[in-house]
Design a protein that fits this description.
With about 130 residues, this protein is α/β, with parallel strands linked by helices. The protein has 5 helices and 5 strands. The chain has a single domain, classed as 3-Layer(aba) Sandwich (Rossmann fold). About 45% of the residues lie in helices and about 20% in strands. Strands 2-1-3-4-5 form a 5-stranded parallel sheet, sandwiched between helices. Helix 2 runs parallel beside helix 3. It is globular, with a radius of gyration of 13 Å.
Length: about 130
């Protein structure tokens, strides 16, 4: 019995970060079921909101510091229109104030950049159980 893939939107202002995450996630779940399917990439919060609205991801990997609209505002907008979308913040900021702000806008999980890949995979795979 096959489960549906987990559809992920990657949001980061640095192209190499987006591409690296997409490659790692695709390879890490290549022989697993469900697989993680990267359905889009956005380089700022405005693009994230637009793509989330048109692509309907299961999970958004969201950077916090970006031009145009930051990750906190983008998260609030996405959660307002699509409350079932999982938002996993990937950031270099790990202080309590940032975590609190993220929780207040609806972030579901908070992972520091550089954390083990397994930690990120587990955060994403948790949404398969609730969405599938």
């Amino acid at each position: 019995m096959s489960q549906k893939n987990i559809r992920v939107l990657i949001v980061d202002d640095i192209a190499q970060v987006r591409q690296g995450l997409a490659t790692m996630l695709t390879l890490a779940t290549k022989n697993r079921n469900p697989q993680i399917e990267v359905i889009g990439e956005a380089r700022n919060g405005t693009e994230a909101i637009q793509l989330a609205g048109s692509l309907h991801p299961d999970v958004v990997l969201m950077d916090l510091e970006m031009p145009v609209i930051d990750g906190l505002i983008a998260t609030r907008c996405i959660k307002w229109t699509q409350p079932g979308v999982g938002i996993v913040v990937l950031t270099i900021h790990h202080d309590e104030a940032t975590r609190l702000k993220a929780a207040q806008v609806g972030v579901d999980d908070f992972i520091e950049k550089g954390a083990p890949l397994d930690e990120l995979l587990q955060a994403i795979l948790r949404f398969q159980q609730t969405s599938g």
